[in-house]
UniProtKB/TrEMBL annotation:
Name of protein: Lysophospholipase L1-like esterase
SUPFAM superfamilies in the record: SGNH hydrolase
Organism: Streptomyces pseudovenezuelae
Pfam families in the record: Lipase_GDSL_2 (PF13472)
Residue ranges constituting the SGNH hydrolase-type esterase domain according to the UniProt record: 178-371
Gene3D superfamilies in UniProt: SGNH hydrolase
Length: 383
């Protein structure tokens, strides 16, 4: 059977030099960084992807190892394998560039937890990073690449440099890319449980799988946290090997961030429903031009969000108008997921139901993510 490289894990990244710093940016000097991931699909071999997209200096990697994770920063030492780059165990990623490891002949399956450990010998400067990694990472001083456990490690709530894993899977394997904001990325779901809405939906599929390219606080039309969604299409969707379907949730932060205390844009810069609808039409057209099936989601409820200025009458009115359009006959998408209805309080539909609320009025918890996943007609993802 012929095999081909298919994405089995993805993590979209953010520029640490953005003016709006919602997540703490940081770098490393003479440190070992250990991060874990869970594969959405399996294959007979794998390769690992790294990024220095937003770095201002070349990123020297003094060594990189792959291992099976047991728990926290602990690995199975019998599985510890050096990654190589064009045959070498150390490498440098130029400013603005990506790097893919040499293939590792290691059969892997969906749901398997792996750990990637990097030794970063120099001063990295601020790192290209992910807002919500699969689980808490760990960092310790010096070269501890092969350590079974990183003792007295600093915990990392953000991900660094690690952007994906591809697996060598049967030709014809097709996957979906979940593309959007925190409701895609899984903010406020339990770290290390793979309980984001796309991950829980993926466990309902009978073939293929879903990789996650969400960025918490991302917007459709304007850069804020991460490049805006329309500018991410080529890199974070079209370049993903095996993609045939795209699952989109976006718009919350276009409506909520302008005017907040954290991001004090003038309220007049908040987009209108017409602006968002035009942007969504453009997004659908670009993805359809590439031959992809596109499933969009209604914008989730957020009335009562605890972040000052996020919830506004104008924003709520625009959300309702956009959602009505998405649920009507005039939208350009191949299917719609009514995420808003799946988690809304029936008595107050602009709010998240109490049992699905993470506690901030803006994000769903594990149970809320499960409710959204359960509301999806899986025939829309005919992988």
């Amino acid at each position: 059977m012929t095999s081909t490289w298919i994405a089995a894990h993805r993590s979209a990244v953010i520029d640490p030099y953005e003016a709006f710093e919602l997540f703490e940016a940081r770098g490393f000097t003479d440190q070992t960084v250990r991060q874990s991931l869970r594969l959405a699909g399996g294959g007979e071999a794998l390769r690992v992807r790294f990024s220095n997209r937003y770095g201002k200096e070349p990123l020297r990697i003094g060594g990189a190892h792959l291992a099976v994770r047991t728990r926290a920063s602990r690995i199975d030492p019998t599985s510890d394998t050096p990654l190589r780059f064009a045959g070498a165990e150390d490498t440098t990623i130029p400013v603005g560039e990506e790097l893919v490891s040499d293939p590792v002949e290691l059969p892997v399956s969906a749901g398997e937890e792996l750990t990637v450990t990097l030794y970063l010998p120099g001063d990295t400067g601020l790192s290209t990073y992910s807002a919500i990694p699969y689980d808490v990472g760990h960092a310790v001083p010096g070269d501890r690449l092969s350590a079974e456990v990183l003792e007295d490690a600093e915990e990392l709530s953000t991900g660094h440099y690690l952007t994906g894993v591809d697996v060598l899977a049967p030709e014809g394997t097709r996957i979906a890319v979940a593309f959007g904001d925190s409701w895609i990325e899984g903010a406020a779901t339990t770290p290390g449980t793979d309980n984001s809405f796309p991950a829980q939906l993926g466990r309902r599929l009978t073939r293929g799988w879903i990789v996650n390219q969400g960025i918490s606080a991302n917007r459709l039309l304007t850069d804020a946290v991460g490049d805006h969604l329309l500018s991410r299409v080529d890199r974070d969707v079209l370049a993903v090997p095996g993609v045939s379907h795209v699952l989109v949730h976006i718009g919350l932060n276009d409506l909520g961030l302008p005017g907040t205390l954290a991001y004090p844009e003038p309220a007049t810069e908040r987009p209108t429903a017409a602006d968002l609808i035009a942007g969504l039409r453009m997004l659908a057209a670009r993805l359809h031009a590439a031959g992809l099936t596109v499933v969009a989601s209604t914008i989730g409820p957020y009335a009562g969000a605890v972040y000052p200025g996020y919830d506004s009458e104008a924003g709520q009115a625009a959300r309702r108008e956009v959602n009505s359009w998405l649920l009507g006959a005039d939208h350009p998408f191949d299917g719609i997921v009514d995420a808003a209805a799946a988690v809304a309080d029936p008595a107050r539909p602009d709010r998240i139901r109490a049992e699905f609320d993470s506690g901030d009025g803006l994000h769903v918890n594990d149970a809320g993510a499960k409710a959204i996943a359960a509301a999806v007609d899986v025939t829309l993802l005919d992988l």
